[in-house]
RNA sequence: GCUCCCGUAGUCUAGUCCGGUCAAGGAUUCGGGGCCUUCGACCCCGUAACGCGGGUUCGAAUCCCGCCGGGAGCACCA
């Protein structure tokens, strides 16, 4: 019997089942719900969770930082925990410098994102408390002072070779460590290295550097310290001293987990567990932080809110709600896979929020002037609904014909055919369409609504120039209906058949052109 | 090269730890239809996936082995 059934197509099997047990045997399967949002944190107790955000102040926050922001925020809310903002402002390097303006900027970005930390701390204030930990590690024989040049150190690490100083006993190391601190060594002349295992299969983990000497001027603490901890060591200290209960960070930092744990084991202290997520990229956002930085600094970009930066503030400027960004970001869970997502997914999330509440306006890009012969005199003006499905959003009066501005691209597509000026009248277009900025004539045909291609129009007598800043940083010139003269800063509109736009924050009523930023279709 | 991580439809994701209820769910995209005087929204329908090869098992997306593919790390940056 079984053998007979095997190999039958599914449909056939279903038929036989129906004959055997009827519909009862094939009850519709219950729909499974969507999965839970984020997994529980190991050992998390409500009210006792302490999380930390650790941005490096070398630029504004961008869309890629969103995951760190919203995941931490989400858990903080779930467990009613504390969220510490700890600026990871050790000196950095020549290429990666701490800059004063970014402390304020990041605070602003967090506020924009709706993330309000319970405390704001600076790593640069905590350096002196890292020194005793260094001593303890040295005393345990866990570290040595290495005077190899950086390149040699790197080379040796790759080949698993020890440098002569690796043989130091703690007493000797302590002496050398003091010399590092008292200025006997120049920057680059000596470092404190962890003693792991040079045969460790992971070359990245072999005798990593714990402290180095730098005399870069720090914007907050100046030259107060010349011996600076590296990220892994500083967090091994601070995650414990600040009472952090869970470390949630991107998987680019997994090796740092191992470093922290190694140090904790060495010193016999207990540290928090780590959770990671993979790298999230937006397909359209080829964000290179250093490129954005350079372009903003050089003035090529329109500041940190330039759409090309994909910074949080640029998304806000485009009318993308941080709440939509949060939903979007959280929808990826804590997957460790590296993913690339089209921006459309974010736009879809935003559109859901915007569509119902956003009023419609008429806008035409790169217009051609069209005079309609035989246009009805009584239709010099009309009123239009602010929203097609929501009468409660009201109506506005608009100036109509006989002179219109229409998009050249629309005209070209329908040249020689009859079209409908949306919500107004039907006209026949000639075969020849002039360049944008030119003028032409069309012929009125009828008034009733017909199933004709619909064209967006702006009445020429009351048109207002509009400048749309596009996502690629270019500016598109066009005209909008007169009602846009009253546009308020940061107001969001849907330009019908064009997309959602947001009025720039520094626009005053009456400004021409009206400057708006394109959000998405 | 070495180490670690990851491979479910076009793109994300749920399911994988604890094998059967997965004839694989959701989102987005795409296609078709409906409705509305937007190419938008909404409603309905549809296309479409367990990387490959072995093994264990009555039974594998799930466990084991091998391969292939992708990513990250190997800084005196964070």
Short recap of the structure:
This protein is α/β, with parallel strands linked by helices.
Secondary structure topology:
Layout: H1 2-5, H2 10-25, E1 50-53, H3 66-78, E2 82-87, H4 101-112, E3 119-122, H5 127-139, E4 143-146, H6 150-159, H7 170-182, E5 191-194, E6 209-213, E7 227-229, H8 231-241, E8 247-250, H9 254-267, E9 274-277, E10 280-282, H10 289-298, H11 312-317, H12 322-330, E11 339-341, H13 343-355, E12 359-361, E13 363-365, E14 367-373, E15 381-385, E16 395-399, E17 403-407, H14 408-413, E18 418-421, E19 426-428, E20 439-446, E21 454-455, E22 457-459, E23 464-469, E24 475-480, E25 492-495, E26 499-503, E27 514-520
Helix pairs in contact: 3-12, 5-8, 8-9, 12-13
The protein binds one RNA strand of 78 nucleotides through helix 2, helix 6, strand 6, helix 9 and strand 11.
Give a structural overview:
By secondary structure, the protein is an alpha/beta fold. It has three domains: 50-123 and 278-351, 3-Layer(aba) Sandwich (Rossmann fold); 126-229, Glutamyl-tRNA Synthetase, Domain 3 (Glutamyl-tRNA Synthetase, domain 3), CATH 3.90.800.10; 359-521, Ribosomal Protein L25, Chain P (Beta Barrel). Helices cover 29% and strands 23% of the residues. It contains 14 helices and 27 strands. It has a seven-stranded mixed sheet. A seven-stranded mixed sheet has the order 21-18-19-20-14-17-22. The protein is elongated, with a radius of gyration of 32 Å.
């Amino acid at each position: 019997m079984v053998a007979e059934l095997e190999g039958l197509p599914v449909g056939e099997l279903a038929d036989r089942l129906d004959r055997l047990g009827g519909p009862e045997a094939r009850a519709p399967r219950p729909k499974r719900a969507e999965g839970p949002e984020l997994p529980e944190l190991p050992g998390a107790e409500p009210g006792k969770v302490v999380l930390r955000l650790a941005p490096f102040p070398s630029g504004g926050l961008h869309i890629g930082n969103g995951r760190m922001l919203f995941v931490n925020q989400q858990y903080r809310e779930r467990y009613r925990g504390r969220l510490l903002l700890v600026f990871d402002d050790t000196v950095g390097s020549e290429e990666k410098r701490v800059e004063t303006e970014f402390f304020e900027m990041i605070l602003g970005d967090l506020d924009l994102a709706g993330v309000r930390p319970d405390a704001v701390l600076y790593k640069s204030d905590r350096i002196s408390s890292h020194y005793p930990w260094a001593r303890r590690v040295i005393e345990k024989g866990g570290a040595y002072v290495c005077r190899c040049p950086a390149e040699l150190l790197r080379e040796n690490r790759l080949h698993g070779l020890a440098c002569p100083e690796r043989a130091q006993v703690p007493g000797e190391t302590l002496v050398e460590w003091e010399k590092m601190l008292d200025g006997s060594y120049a920057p680059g002349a000596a470092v404190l290295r962890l003693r792991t295992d040079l045969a460790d299969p992971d070359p990245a983990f072999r005798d990593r550097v714990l402290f180095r000497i730098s005399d870069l001027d720090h914007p907050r603490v100046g030259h107060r310290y010349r011996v600076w901890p590296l990220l892994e060591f500083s967090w091994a200290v601070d995650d414990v001293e600040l009472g952090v209960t869970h470390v949630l960070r991107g998987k680019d930092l997994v090796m740092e987990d191992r470093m922290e744990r190694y140090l904790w084991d060495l010193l016999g202290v207990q540290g928090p567990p780590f959770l990671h997520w993979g790298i999230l990229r937006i397909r359209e956002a080829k964000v290179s932080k250093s490129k954005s930085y350079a372009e903003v600094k050089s003035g090529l970009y329109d500041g940190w809110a330039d759409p090309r930066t994909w910074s949080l503030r640029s998304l806000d400027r485009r009318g993308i709600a941080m709440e939509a960004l949060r939903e979007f970001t959280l929808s990826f869970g804590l997957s460790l896979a590296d993913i690339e997502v089209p921006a459309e997914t974010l736009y879809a999330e935003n559109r859901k929020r915007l569509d119902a509440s956003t009023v419609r306006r008429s806008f035409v890009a790169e217009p051609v002037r069209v005079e309609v012969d035989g246009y009805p005199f009584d239709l010099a003006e009309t009123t239009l609904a602010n929203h097609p499905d929501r009468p409660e959003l009201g109506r506005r009066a608009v100036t109509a014909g006989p002179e219109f501005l229409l998009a050249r691209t629309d005209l070209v597509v329908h040249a020689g055919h009859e079209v409908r000026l949306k919500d107004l009248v039907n006209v026949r277009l000639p075969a020849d369409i002039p360049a944008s900025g030119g003028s032409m004539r069309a012929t009125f045909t009828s008034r009733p609504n017909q199933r004709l291609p619909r064209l967006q129009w702006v009445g020429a007598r009351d048109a207002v120039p509009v400048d749309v800043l596009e996502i690629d940083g270019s500016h598109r010139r066009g005209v909008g209906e007169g009602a846009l003269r009253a546009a308020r800063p940061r107001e969001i509109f849907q330009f019908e058949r064009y997309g959602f736009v947001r009025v720039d924050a520094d626009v005053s009523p009456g400004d021409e052109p009206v400057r708006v930023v394109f959000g998405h279709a």
